[in-house]
Amino acid sequence: MAWLLWFSLVHASARAPLSGAWREVTRGDTPAQVLAAFSHGTLKAFDPSILQRFPREALGSWIVLQPAPSGSGEERVLSIYPAPMGSITLYGSNGPARTLALDDFAAPLHGHGRLAFELAVDRGQAKPILLKFEPGAAMAAPERFELQGLDDYLQEDTNWLAFATACFAVMVAMAMMALCFALMLRDMTFAWYTGYMLCYVVVQGVQTGFLFHPLGFSWLAGSETLVGAGAMALSVSFAALFISRFCDLQQFAASLRVPVIALGIAMPLIVLLRCSHISALVVMAQTLVNPVLILGAVLLLFTALAAGVRGSRQAWFFLAGWTPLLVLTAMTGAQATGALPSLDWLNDASIAMGAFEAIVLSLGLADRALTMRRDRDNVRVLADRDALTNLLNRRAWTEAANRMLAEATNAEQPIAMLFLDLDHFKLLNDRQGHVAGDRALMAVAEVLSNELRPTDLLGRYGGEEFIAMLHGVNQEQAVHVATRLCRRVHRLEIPVDQNELLLSVSIGLAMRSLGDTLETLIERADQAMYYVKLHGRNQVHTFERRAEIAGHPAPRSKHEPES
Asked: Measuring CA to CA, how many Å separate 545 from each of 243, 415, 522, 553?
């Protein structure tokens, strides 16, 4: 907005002074009669430097512009901004000299965002410039006129083209990025945003003529009015579907979700009626489209505000991007009725605000994606963690252990499996209750977590059973770790009953061998743990594979913790 204000002030001094007058075309008019009426002062005077609306409904309008004399002999350009929907004819001394329109691809000088007529060099008394706004079905929008030297015009045209290209590039880039995320995440919220933003690009591209010059979409020639109206209706439809998911109306504004979805469905139906080529349906669509657009814009604004007040974080992103654009749209609509004639920058501001909205909504989508990821991670943590001990549960531990085994493909990389079972835990539950049992499990889990390395994989296997996988330790080191765990649990001094019996842990140890799977490794560690249960508890036993083959498991080593 600041750039537009500076741009308009800098280039205001370069404009040649103009005076003007106009009247509606009547049957039998000739250029000579119109110029004679202008010289006698019978036409309606207006200021060409501010916006003025000229009727096109009947036969069109005559416009006569009187420039100040120029002694420089510089070639001058008459530009009409913003680019009008419809054709304009420039008359010379011998009749019509040139007719221009947005979809004209044969003009020697193309104006970007406006129509431009190259005028002959006038070294003497300046002659009036006679224009005719040809009749057309499109609604007449206000225009202003500007007479400049060719160099000044080309510089201003280059600046506008760079500005508009940057804005459109931002909108298209944000839309394409959202489309990629829609495909990757399979989230229709991003798809609705893509549709909304691309439709807005088409609307602005048609209104400014950007789709014709510089993009050169000649296949749109003659249908720009229908394409623009259809894109406007579809943009509101996509915006309604977007806000329904983006602002989570189901949670924060459930009562407004139905009318918003109805708006999203109604706008495409109106477009279909407009394209039906059935006169009655086309008239109905033309009658409905503007009221529905106005009511729809107000509905979306109110819905986003209601959702934001009720706690929707993304609704504030929508309001930050949508509200300024809605205000500009309302001001532009008021301008079409004759209000705000001096604010000729509103059309360019709408392009800039479209880029601003694209960025704000993209930030909102990024915030939504991060929020969804955080919620997903929280759910995953809740699903993977044991609620009592905060250790990995059996499923999550099994998945992590399988990954660890898969990564350690080299059998020379040692992996130790510890299977731990609390001694006399059932007796503790029976004598002191489940609350005391839960406290004991939490205390033991904390001790085990503190004693093992962060890279060791510890989980609650079920009930009073724990399991740990140690990567990169040999058998001697694993025995040392397991013995230390026995000591630490015993030193908690958790009483089991009144006979000074303390809670302890029995640990079975198995080392990964060639061809081991997770199931076989756990099975061997479990067998070693049961050997400890049968031979005194509160100690570590290492599984001996040769004993298993002989059919009579026997300890390879037996370690009792220090008292």
From this structure: 64, 16, 13, 8
Secondary structure letter of residue 557 according to DSSP? -
Q: Specify the pTM.
A: 0.71
1 is a domain residue: no
What is the spatial distance between Cα 439 and Cα 447, in angstroms, rounded to a whole number?
12
Its domain, for residue 146, covers: 13-155
- Say what percent of the chain tops pLDDT 70: 90
Q: Does pLDDT of 557 surpass 50?
A: no
Residues 116 and 172 grouped into a single domain: no
Has residue 305 been placed in a domain?
yes
Q: Residue written as tokens 């139905």? A: 258
pLDDT tens, residue by residue, 26-64: 988 888 899 899 999 899 999 998 888 888 877 889 999
Facing residues of 146 across strands? 79
Domain containing residue 258: CATH number:
1.20.1070
Is 4 contained in some domain?
A: no
Least confident window among 155-159, 273-277, 478-482? 273-277
> Inter-axis angle of helices 279-309 and 313-336, to 10 degrees?
140
| 188 lies in the same domain as 257 | yes
Closest-CA residue to 193 (of 239, 227, 161): 239
Do 444 and 357 lie in one domain? The reply is no
User: Last residue of a domain, which of 116, 139, 155?
Assistant: 155
Give the separation between CA 149 and CA 496, rounded to whole angstroms. 100
Same-domain pairing of 258 and 113: no
Domain match, 356 and 303 both: yes
- Compute the average pLDDT of residues 414-425: 92
Residue 128: asked if its preceding bond is cis (omega within 30°), the reply is no
The pLDDT of residue 389 is above 70: yes
Return the structure tokens found at 397.
Answer: 């531990």
How far apart CA 200 and CA 198 sit, in angstroms, is 5
CB 562 within 8 A of CB 487: yes
Q: Which two tokens stand for residue 29?
A: 């008019």
Which of 124, 155, 186 represents a domain boundary (last residue)?
155
Structural tokens at position 96: 């019509």
* 342 alpha carbon, distance to own chain's centre: 35
DSSP element (H, E) containing 494: none
User: Strand, helix or coil at 77?
Assistant: strand
Question: What does the pLDDT look like over 204-240, one tens digit per residue?
Answer: 998 888 888 888 888 887 787 788 888 888 888 899 9
- 456, 417 contact by CB (below 8 A): no
- Give me the CATH number covering residue 27: 2.60.40.2380
Overall number of domains in the chain: 3
User: Which three-class secondary structure state does DSSP give residue 16?
Assistant: strand
Of the pLDDT bands very low, low, confident and very high (cuts 50, 70, 90), residue 411 is low
Flag whether pLDDT at 14 surpasses 60.
Answer: no
User: CB-side exposure of 166: number of CA atoms within 13 Å?
Assistant: 10
